[in-house]
Every structure is written in C-alpha cells, then in structure tokens.
Amino acid sequence: MFDHAYGSYMKYAYPADELMPLSCRGRVRGLEPSRGDIDDALGKFSLTLIDTLDTLVVLNKLDEFEDAVRKVVLDVRLDNDVVVSVFETNIRVLGGLLGGHIMADMLKVQGERLQWYKDELLHLARDLGYRLLPAFNTTSGLPYPRVNLRYGVLSPNSRTGTELDTCTACAGTMILEFAALSRLTQETVFEDTARRALDVLWEKRQKGNNLVGTVINIHNGDWVRRDSGVGAGIDSYYEYLMKAYILLGDDTYLDRFNAHYVAIMKYISQPPLLLNVHMHNPTVSIRSWMDSLLAFFPGLQVLRGDLKPAIETHEMLYQVTKQHKFLPEAFTSDFAVYWAQHPLRPEFAESTYFLYKATRDPYYLHVGKSIVESLNRHARVECGFAAVQDVRTGRHEDRMDSFFLAEMFKYLYLLFTEKRDLPLDIDDYIFTTEAHLLPLSLSTTRPPCPRNATVRRPWAQQGSRGTMLHEGLAEEEEIFTRSCPSAQTLFPNNPTFPYTIRDSHKHLPSLGTERLTLFSGIELPLHDTRAEPLEILKHLGLTLIPLSDGDVHMAGAQHKHEVSPVGVFTLKFIAELVSPPSKEPPGLSPLAVQVISPPFLGRMVLTAGPAQFGMDLTKEEHGVKGSLVQSEPYQACSTIANWEEVQGKIALAQRGGCMFAAKARNLQGVGASGVIFIDDVEGSRSEDMVPFQMAGDGSTDDIVIPLVFLFWKEGQTLLDALAHHRNVEVVLGAKLFLLGEDKEESPASQKDASELPHVEQERCFRGGWDQAVMEEASLSAPDDSWQPVPATQEH
C-alpha cells in the first residue's frame, strides 16, 4: 500500500507538494484552483517527500530513503514567495527535515549508508526555523498564523500580518520541533520562542477550572472562541505538553498537562464521548457533535497510563468507523454523520497502535486490519489513495495529503510488524503530532529552563498526605500523576480487562424512533422524572438491544427472553421514556430561506443551516432581503468573475474546493450582501440529514455578511427558480414572513422557524410543497406580466 501511494507521488507529482490521485498529477499552488486555507500547507518545497522521509526508514526502505535525501538536498529551496501556515509548516516540513536528519545521521553512524551526508537536512531545518521566527514578533509572543517564506510577516511584500488571532493548537504545537532544532544546533532562540508561546497559553487559561478556549487574539491574549474540547483547534496543544515532558524532561510541562487533564476528565469527558464545553461555564456541553481529530486522544491517554477511558473512547470511534466505513470528519453524539468528508486522517490508527502497545490485546490487530481493508476497498485508486468526499456515497476527492504517508502507514506498519524487524529501537523515540521521530536523548543536552517553572506554593499549603500543590492544582496529585503505569502492574493476570470495558460500548444507539417492550412480571415504580426508572433497569442488569425490526427489547446479561406487554400504563411510560431524539442538536436553531418574489410570494420556504461566523440572523428581526445571483466560479474559491452582478445581491455558491470562510471572504470582498451555500453531495436533503452548521477557519471576525447552508435538494429548488425567473428575491432569517398589502410586517405576521405547527413545518422545511410551487410557477404567466394579488391575514 505504501509503495502504491509513495510510488504514485514520485511518478506523477514530484517535485510538487502533493499528489492529485484522481488526476494523476501534482498539486502546484497557484496552478490549481485555490482551496483557501487548506492550501496554506503548500509552500513549493516538495511537501510530501519531506514529510515521508522517516517513514521510509521505519518501513526499511533504506535505498529509497537515501535517494529521497539526495533529492531534498539538491532540489528543495525554502526562499519561496509563498504565504504558508506556521503550524502546518512546522509539524510537516520542519518536523520532516528533523526526522530525516536524525535517521540519516543514525544510518551514517552505522557505517553502511549515507557516508556522504554532512547534516544538509539539519541546515535546511535551521534555515526554515529562522524563516518561521518572524511570525512570533507579536506583543504577546503568540505567533501569527501565517508567514511569507521570503518576506516574513510585516514586510510590504509579505501579503500577511493582518491576522488578529490564531488557534490554541497553532500556537501551542511548536515546542517539540523548535526545542529539537535548538538542541541539535545549540541555538536556543527556537526553544525559548516556543516556550514563551506556551507560557502565554498557560497564563490565559481559565484559572478556576484550567480549561482553554479554541481561538485566541495574538496581540492581547483575549479568547476569541471560548469553546473548550480535545478536538480541532486545541488537540495537539495538550499532546505537546505531555510529549515535551517526555522528550525534554522538564517537570513544568507535566505539571501543566496534569492540570489540564484533570479538567478534561471532569468537564469534557462523558465516556465514551468527548463533548465541547464553554471554558467559563463548563458544566454544560455546547455542541452535540464531535470532530474526527479527537481520535488521537485515546493514544495520549495511553501515554499517561489512563487506559480505561482510552479503551472506551476508542471503542466508540471503532463502532462509528464500522457504521460509516471511515471516521467522518464530524459526527453527532448519536453517531450520525455531521460532516461527511474523510481526508484519510491517521488519528484513529495512531490510537489503535498505542492501545495495542499498552495491552497487547490482539483485538487491536483486528481493528488495524479493518482500517487496511477500508483503505484498499474504498480509497485506493489508480494513482494512489484518494480522500473520501462523502462517507455515505463513497465519492472521492482529488486529494492525498502528505500526512497520509507520514503518519498512516507508519502507525499501521508499526502495529503489525515485530520489533526485531525494525532498523531502529522505536522506544528510543517519541512521535511528534505528524509522527516524526525525535530521540529521547535530546533531554540530556540542555537543562530545564528555571524561569519557565510553574509557580509552586509553599509547603505550608500541603495536602493531607504532604503532597506539594501547584498553581492551578487545588487537589492532591493522583497516584500516577508522575508515572506511566503498565497494564501488567495495574491489572495483573487479567487479560479480559480491555474486553470488559469495550463490551459495554459495542452497541451504538439506533437512529430514529424506537419503542420498548418489557418482560412480563417486572413492575417499575413510575415517577415524574425519567432518570430513576433508568437506574432501576441498570441495577437489574438489563440493557437495550436494537433489533432489525426497529424495536428495542430488554435482555439480561446472559440471554434474551420472550417478551410480552405488561399493561397499558407501563407501556405509556415507556413510550415517553424513549421518545425519538430530536434531529436538531442543542443550541442549533434552523434558519429559513423564504422566496418572496412572484410567483412564490412567501409560500416557498426552505430549511437552512447556520454558520458559526458572519451575521447572526437570529438577532435580525426582519431578516436580510436580497435578490439571488449565482457566483462564477460556482465554488467561489478564486476571484469572482461576475463581481458586478454579485454586488449588492445574495450569492449562491457550491460547497467544496475550499473552506466556507474563504468563499465568504471572496464574495463579501466584491460586495455580496449575503451567501447561500449549496451542498455538493447530489441527493442530500434536509429531511434525511442532521442539521448542518458551517464552521469557520479560526479567524473570521472580518466576515460580517449573513451565511446559510442548504442541502442539495433545497438548493436545486432555488437554482430552478433562478433559471425560470429573471428576478428571485429571498429573505434569510430565523422567522417566516406572511406577506401583506405593502405594509411593514407586524409581530403577528411573523413566525419563528422553530415554532411552526407540525404540518406546516413538514411542508415548509422538508420541501413538501416546493415541487408543487415550482409546477404552479412554471404554468404561470411570464414575470413581466405577473400581477400579485393582495394577500389577506389568512394567507
């Protein structure tokens, strides 16, 4: 599999940054349509080759490795006039160069290969490090999110430096690579710079609970997004605190990680789920979906020695992958698809590898086998492996990210291989977040930085057992706070330990309506609350088992029983107990696109999903009104060709190609008054899908226009209307407007989108009358002769 992927890149793409596996050519920035922020990883520096260097050694492809090192030394230049992501360039390119140098140096010392090598990769890494340093020239010490490789940040030619904020992970995922660079070059500026950024994040945490937010202002340190979790935007910040302690031996990092970890397990972890909370009010989950990047977290818990929650969350993720073939980019708390893409991310394979190393349970070999089979069956194409655009349909995307070669194959190979067959002792190294290998021997080359130490309170404030307390840690240290216990120590002679944990998470809840029948002879006390009867069932040892007919029957721990009804009163209670879950995630209110121009006159109303950025339509009493125009290009990922038509109108743009925020900026920049994004998955419709909320890119304060999302079916309705009628006018908002006789809508003429009667919601929001209206419109007179009839309140 690796030979197919790497060989395809070298044959069809090199020296380009990435392979386009469907087109069988390389992706060169500037020559392909822009994908927005996704392209910030591309710097015209043969990204995939550099990112793959140490993978070649792990897989024993030493001839290919030496050839790849020669190519990097001879061909790669870093002084390109390109704006790149500081975060991505650090973990992929700087990490790749360092991992490659360490492998080359190891093989040279062994005396059989690379005798010509004179630290050229390290020199390139040092050059790149100095090109990234200007990003840290901020008041706070937190880095700008982007830097120009040639001109830095604040130069007139840099085309960057106007950003106000960055994600927590973006600022907090520098210490491993920068510290390794400092210790290999004896130039301390890199490690000191990365430490300073970590100090700021620690200082800006919510001190009452030790949580951090997702996006922070790089100038004043204020939190821009205050949601706190372990997934996108924060993930590798936690990872690097733990791994910095392991690599560098500085207790400061362990103290901080432990403080954060206690907070995560108290507020965010709801086994097996990991749900975001508000950092200032962490007792309530603020969203009901999870993103796939949190799949790394069980592996991090293994490093800490906390196996039970690691096994629980990993098992939940495995059940999701079995249900959808891959882990969707985001999924709801009841495991339905939320974002359907799968860009061949490796985090689930990473956690699988760590759990196998910790438990030696062959179960995890079978999990790895399922990953391999899914990749070969659903992602392998003629020229490599293609990302999956939609896990529900299997449609591919012309994309094979460099991390697929850097991480996925490394973790899978290490999962299945025997230690004796590796050309190095893998336990002498730690993995960066991009799975590059850094040697643990680096910890001996520089003492801890004393001024960076976490403030310790005096011994007078000891706990009951004399445990020293630390800033941010109001509780005594746990027994394993400063050690990594082995499974053999904690669970001697108990090989079934992982099985007993996994078994309770094998059965995901079925989606949709379920009804319940009880055994005869069981009587339950009925109360006003629902929680107590559930606890009674749990103590009876009863579990819910979804059956193929949609029913849910009760079963004991050992075997199933025939079931029979136990009375009308009890059944009525049960029906209420398992009432169908709402499709609408908590805190997510649906919006509406209402067509108000003739011949529709407000009768066509389409369900729309909101955005996490842009204008808040729920606060606009009268919505936002405008005429529709289709963007050219339709995906709006590059310069808008029909900008004169778009100006002052609501633009229609297709999903895909780049991030929503990039499209919104392009259209706002030419004067669009709003944007309706239309799903690119053919056949998707609101009645079948979980409500969709568009996420930003971490720095979206500049986007102020209203943005809504329509699934494909509803979007086609608008496109058809636009094709049939020269002017289509709509209102975007959270309320529906009943049209009257040229007078301002009164409160009585408005309806909240979530408060419509059930039948009207069916017809409005699920497209039940869309087709009827379209057919009526197609039979009507031409637009210029249409005369609307004054409506009455009954209308």
UniProtKB/TrEMBL annotation:
GO terms for cellular component: endoplasmic reticulum quality control compartment; membrane. Keywords: Calcium, Endoplasmic reticulum, Glycoprotein, Glycosidase, Hydrolase, Metal-binding, Signal, Unfolded protein response. Ca(2+) binds at T433. Residues 776-795 are annotated as: Disordered. The active site is at E88 (proton donor), D235, E329 (proton donor), E347. It is an enzyme of class 3 (hydrolase). Pathway: Protein modification; protein glycosylation. Its cofactor is Ca(2+). Its EC number is 3.2.1.-. GO terms for biological process: carbohydrate metabolic process; endoplasmic reticulum mannose trimming; response to unfolded protein. Residues 624-718 form the PA domain. It comes from the Eukaryota. GO terms for molecular function: calcium ion binding; mannosyl-oligosaccharide 1,2-alpha-mannosidase activity. It catalyses: N(4)-(alpha-D-Man-(1->2)-alpha-D-Man-(1->2)-alpha-D-Man-(1->3)-[alpha-D-Man-(1->3)-[alpha-D-Man-(1->2)-alpha-D-Man-(1->6)]-alpha-D-Man-(1->6)]-beta-D-Man-(1->4)-beta-D-GlcNAc-(1->4)-beta-D-GlcNAc)-L-asparaginyl-[protein] (N-glucan mannose isomer 8A1,2,3B1,3) + 3 H2O = N(4)-(alpha-D-Man-(1->3)-[alpha-D-Man-(1->3)-[alpha-D-Man-(1->6)]-alpha-D-Man-(1->6)]-beta-D-Man-(1->4)-beta-D-GlcNAc-(1->4)-beta-D-GlcNAc)-L-asparaginyl-[protein] (N-glucan mannose isomer 5A1,2) + 3 beta-D-mannose; N(4)-(alpha-D-Man-(1->2)-alpha-D-Man-(1->2)-alpha-D-Man-(1->3)-[alpha-D-Man-(1->2)-alpha-D-Man-(1->3)-[alpha-D-Man-(1->2)-alpha-D-Man-(1->6)]-alpha-D-Man-(1->6)]-beta-D-Man-(1->4)-beta-D-GlcNAc-(1->4)-beta-D-GlcNAc)-L-asparaginyl-[protein] (N-glucan mannose isomer 9A1,2,3B1,2,3) + 4 H2O = N(4)-(alpha-D-Man-(1->3)-[alpha-D-Man-(1->3)-[alpha-D-Man-(1->6)]-alpha-D-Man-(1->6)]-beta-D-Man-(1->4)-beta-D-GlcNAc-(1->4)-beta-D-GlcNAc)-L-asparaginyl-[protein] (N-glucan mannose isomer 5A1,2) + 4 beta-D-mannose. It is found in: Endoplasmic reticulum. Belongs to the glycosyl hydrolase 47 family. This is alpha-1,2-Mannosidase.
